[in-house]
Amino acid sequence: MRRFLPVLSITIAAFFAYSTVLAKEITERALAVKAAQLVEVFALLGAFVTVAMIVAALVSTSTFRIVFAQRMRELALLRAIGATRARLARGLVVEGAVVGLLASIAGVALAAGAGQLVPLAGLPAPGFPLMPALIVVAGSFVLTTLAVLAPAWSAAKVSPLEALRTSAVQDTESRIGGLRWALGILMASGAGVLLVSVVADGLATKKRPAGMTDELLLRTTISGALAFGALIALGPALIAPVLRMISVPLRRSTIGSLAVHGVGGAPRRAASVTAVVALGVSLIIATLTGANTLQGLGKAEMASAYPAELEIIGPVDAAALRAAGLTDVLPYRRTEITVNGRLTMRGTDLDLTKLRDLEDFRVDTGTLADMGPREIVLSTHTASSLGVAAGSHVDVNGVQMTVAATVFGGVPLGSALLHASDVDDDPVGALANGPKERVPAGFEVEELSERRLVQQNRFTTLVAIAVGLLFLTMLIAVVGVGSTTALSVLERTRESGLLRAIGLTRKELGRLITTEAGLYGIVGALIGLALGIPYAWLAIISLGVEWPLQVPVVAVGVVMLVLTALTAGAGLLPARRAARVSPVAALHSIQ
């Protein structure tokens, strides 16, 4: 059975990929007209399917490496009786390819079966799209075959003398070769150079030429890929320092100290597993951080676009509106202005200090309080285009004015705010809060609150989909932790028996195994945290978002705790297996 442990991760990935195809077909059948509005959702699904497949391939590579190491004596015996390295490698690759084929077929079959349950929710069944199914099967098969190449060639290099050794696994070396060091440092340096270039160009260029945002995003993506490649290359050398950093409280107990030694005793294996976990964590944390930052900007933009529940358009009588039962009535006037002879825009005399949702605005420079005559408030985007900030002087329709403040997210009802004494026109509308039905007849009314709610719900839905899909990707990484822990238990049967023989109880041995599994999650989470937040910031800079980075500390903490719990839970079954073995039987086993 242990030879087929990679099946689970590939099966989940194939299930995920084909389920996306079925979901799209269901949506197109049920919402034939509105399906076009969900294009970005399925683009998002496609991106996360790609990530899930990559994670599954990494988990498979790690698991194949461990499975082949577990069979080292068997492979050495085959070498001893005449099998060549090439023939042995071909046999292992074929074995991995068969595993990938079975897993991909199983994943597609499970997804197709789940799709037939859709009518229970009142939606039409998706049928069986044959071509996408074949593509998913073929893709998973190729991915698994590629994943097994490196472990197969490495295992095929086993010496025939390994058959005489009592230990089947030799994974205690944390040292890596000079070529691997050079490759890792080269990739890390490349990631750093690209990171610095994105920060320098993104922050320095206020007015971007066409295509610059796409270029910065490409640099960010390449930098992230290089950073992850460096992590894979240098991982075995990083395990010991990271473990020393987090193991201080654990070393106070016998179980914790043994768990740290167990993870650190196989640094290459630990590096492979934690790299997969780190990828998932970094994506989740980067998504949460980016979403939290964009949500802050979105609130400011929506407070600007929809500053009240109602906008009443036309000459208004504020007293009559208040008498009709509306509250927070704010009449406003509008005028066309030209700033510095360059930008023509709409200016209003709306008093921001009287808006109910003022807390959603964030001032970049200056202050909104005590705004007086011949003062103007601009959005950060407009101020950047003009090259001004709070305190700067600008020409407005031939009159010198002072920039009182610049605000993120835009200015309500226009591009600039003026003092009431600087606007001579009559009121052209009003903002108010209350039911639309209370507005007197004869006015055009826009319900801003509904439009604001639609935008908020859409953003929340997209973020929820992204985070949900990333957590599914994390489950594949957790499968990798479980398979690694299970195989570690198998190859350390004698060690477990010795620990039992010197007094360790079954419960203590079980806690030891689950603590080791949890440590994989903690190490991966810390590395993912170290990568996720900087690259979230880099993505914000690349997009040109004019809003400070906001890290959701509580959400990040929850992710770390959930991940630790999941990885520790992945060690429960291996722990039960280890605890059931009697000390005498364990000491007599030859692993």
Automatic annotation (TrEMBL):
InterPro entries: ABC3_permease_C (IPR003838), Macrolide_Exporter_MacB (IPR050250). It is found in: Cell membrane. It is a multi-pass membrane protein. The chain crosses the membrane at residues 42-68, 88-113, 133-156, 177-200, 220-243, 270-291, 462-490, 517-537, 549-573. Keywords: Cell membrane, Membrane, Transmembrane, Transmembrane helix. Coiled coil: none annotated. The keyword Transmembrane applies. Residues 47-160, 469-583 form the ABC3 transporter permease C-terminal domain. It comes from the Bacteria. Belongs to the ABC-4 integral membrane protein family. This is ABC transport system permease protein. It comes from Lentzea atacamensis.
